[in-house]
Design goal:
With 100 residues, the chain is mainly β. 9% of the residues lie in helices and 41% in strands. The strands form two sheets. Strands 1-5-6-7-8 form a five-stranded mixed sheet. A five-stranded mixed sheet has the order 9-2-3-4-10.
């Protein structure tokens, strides 16, 4: 299974608690994927995505969360707990290009 590190995200309004992440990417790799593409890749069970704690080197894997009546969204899961690591990541910059 291929694994990819997520280092940045895009939200329409970075500070709004009601806006969902629209894109996830990797600044060093200069790539971005739509949220829907990441969900499809995770669902295929051929690819995994993670964030990395720079202090501990520990990975938090990205999972798809499906709640009744809501659009599927992404959240990290580490040490048996759901957390919001994705929201603390940097904003993807102009060097990140959307890939298929």
């Amino acid at each position: 299974m291929k694994e990819f590190e997520i280092t940045c995200v895009v939200k329409p309004d970075r500070f709004s608690p009601h806006e969902h992440i629209t894109h996830l990417g990797n600044i060093a790799g200069k790539w971005m994927l739509t949220r829907e593409s990441v969900i499809a890749r995770i669902d295929s069970k051929e690819e995994r995505f993670f964030t990395m704690d720079r202090v501990t080197g520990k990975r938090a894997y990205v999972a798809v969360v499906r709640e009744a009546g809501k659009v599927p969204f992404l959240r990290t899961h580490a040490d048996g707990k759901w957390n919001n690591n994705l929201l603390s990541l940097a904003e993807c910059n102009g060097s990140c290009q959307i890939i298929a």
